[in-house]
Amino acid sequence: MQEVAAQPPHLSSASDLAGSPGGVPSVSIVIAIYNERDSLHALADEIRGAMDQLPNAWEAVMVDDGSSDGSRQIEREIHAADPRFKVIQLRRNFGKAAAMSTGFRAAQGEIVVTMDADLQDDPSGITDLIRPIEDGSADLVSGWKFPRRDPLGKRLPSKLYNFVTRVASGVDLHDMNCGFKAYRAEVVREVALYGEMHRYIPVMAAGAGFKVTEAKVHHRPRVHGQSKYAYARFIRGFLDLLTVVFLTRYRRRPLHLIGGLGLGMGSLGFLILLYLTASWFLGNPLANRPLLFLGMLLVLVAGQFFTFGLLAEMMTYYDARDRNEYPQLARLGFHDDPAP
Q1: How far is it, in rounded angstroms, from Cα 39 to Cα 56?
Q2: pTM of the entire structure?
């Protein structure tokens, strides 16, 4: 995974993890926290109650993304009472993707679960999320909040967002933005998070060849704190979607996208100029015709697109020729493979 902008101070080290009750955990729960002090004790109690019913050894990695409401002290109290709750506190608010990436690097479980800290995710649903991973039918299981207990003004834009994302990405999930998910550990090691790309982990995972599915999870109304929801994030989400679609479909063949756009504009410009040429032969003057300038502009911009596309192809070639970035399911019979 990529590094975040600053190294956060860790309250718990790797040696603490190995010595936690239950041994090395098989399930890690990563919780990104930002100003959720009123929910944290209840969240810890619910996680403990749900996970202690399972045979899996577990840990919870609480990543505080620069809270300023007193959450940090409560996190320390939870860790002191139960060492299975690990705490990482970032120096300032870097964003949810940075917090999740930090938690992914610290997680030691073979299965990683992410959830929000606002008590809207019910920890009892972890069983349904990890089951398809344990039986080998999925690598990533995305929660589907059903029914969703949010205001209508939040649900309707979310439905539009999920529809556009399904169409653009080809990943058929009902609730892409649900933070309640379970991953095979290989997924979180493979997918690099930055900016606000945490919304599109299922798209990036599917693009890398992992099996992605979903499971319905119980969703509850928010009781404490304030929602971090903002309409501006839909604009940022749309731009991030364009980035993810490009990276998953065209990263190794950029000319197919950039050149395709150039071909479309160039063809339209050529047809316009061809029409104007025929019109000129029929005696119609070309002076002061905006259509002439449009045709010339389209042809010129098309040439620039082809140039940029070829440059991108050259950069992709020299970057990839000595590297193998394709995820592998297994390697057998090679001298450098670890013993099974």
Answers
A1: 25
A2: 0.72
